[in-house]
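Pasting as-is:
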Amino acid sequence: MKLGSMTLIAGLGLAMAGPMASGQPSNADTFPDRPVRMLVGYPPGGNVDIAARIIADELSRKLGQPVIVENRAGASGQIAAVATMQAPPDGYTIFLGASPELAITHALKRKVSYDSRRDFQPISLATQVPFALVVNPSVKAKTVQELIALAKAQPGSLNYASFGDGSSNHLFAELFKHKTGIQMTHIPYKGGGPAIADLVGGQVQVEFESLGVVLPHVKAGKLRALAIAMSERSPLAPDIPTMAEAGLPGLEGGTWNGFVGPAGMPPAITKKLSQKIVEAMNEPTVKQKLIEKGVVPSAGTPEAFGKFIASEIDRWGQVAEVANIKLE
């Protein structure tokens, strides 16, 4: 979750064609009367982009206007976040943000040009992507409790991979260490791909990763899944126990995505967008496509999402403080 230079974002998302460019509130009864932009802060083909396109296709039908996915990749999602903040608050620019740019960057007290709690209007949580705890098959542990016992018997001997310093799975692993009282050595990578490659290769032994990413390796016998950090077992892998079943109740989490717009959006437009997103994501075909990607559809109200963002900032801020994670 490295930060890029904010100089790259100057001028992005400042202008929009059409009658709403003045920033005047639009009428909820007629909204939308032209296409809606859905910004994504990551490149095409990634997990966030795939989820965005699945949702956008159905949301277009629910709104009666095209919902156009626009990738503004860079700076761990922050380029798209700033473009959203600077767009007219008329509902025609929405952002499918993710936990790194909407919560973790604030939890780590990084210097960014926006505040997720002030500069955006929450619309709806979209998806949650729970982490699975996986190990290289060389690790002599077939359960979470066996892994804990092994780590306690040999403090610091196990290495765990992450997407990078201060990333979501770095923080979750530190939470796991804190809850269990074990020591493991952190090995940060520049993204999930290299981390998984070295985990499969045995250069590192442990990682928290999204189930959709690791499941092919688990099925091939290249990794062993010990638990999943969600309240219920996943339909994709019903044989993998939850953390609660493994003896660690309440240890849930992963990454997530949710929709926000610029602060100052009219309440009626915000409500309409939220309702249409919920309707789109409740369509059986949409739910099935998302579940097949290893994510949990989680759409809800603007109020609930706003509280969720604040709680995530507080939660991971506390973890960062306890683990003494300080990044510039």
